[in-house]
Amino acid sequence: VQLQASGGGSVQAGGSLRLSCVASGFNFEQYIIGWFRQAPGKEREGVSCMDGYDGKTVYADSVKGRFTISSDHAKKMVYLQMINLKPEDTAVYYCAADPRVVVLLLAQPLPDYWGQGTQVTVSS
């Protein structure tokens, strides 16, 4: 399983960013794929995940209405569109995948497979 995230950057509060993740080495439709983030001094937390089988999506309460997860199965890509970014969204964002549906809880257990992180910095 390989995951490669990109698209992070620095924006001002209220700005937008789109993260991308290219997946390989596994059957996209048999995995939960999504995004987690880790801010300095904080634990890694779930942001949003998608069931590759039926497209079901889940979001952390803190990002509902501002972030949208989507995918392109043909390209094996997962995206995270982030709008109205806030300083508290500042973190390293990770693309992750796991075949266990429990990952949709965006809590423990965390996914088994991780890409490298991409930094998102939101200034006030």
What are the SSEs and their pairings?
Blueprint: E1 2-6, E2 9-12, E3 17-24, E4 32-38, E5 45-51, E6 57-59, E7 67-72, E8 77-82, E9 91-98, E10 113-114, E11 118-123
Parallel strand pairs: 2-11
Antiparallel strand pairs: 1-3, 3-8, 4-5, 4-9, 5-6, 7-8, 9-10, 9-11
Q: What do these coordinates show?
A:
- It is built from no helices and 11 strands.
Terminal-residue CA separation: 37 Å
SS-based class: mainly beta
**Radius of gyration over C-alpha positions, nearest whole angstrom:** 13 Å
Low-confidence stretches: none
The main sheet comes to: 7 strands, mixed
Helix content: under 10%
Average pLDDT score: 96
Question: TL;DR of this structure?
Answer:
The chain has 124 residues and is mostly beta strands.
List its traits.
about 120 residues; seven-stranded mixed β-sheet; about 0% helix; globular
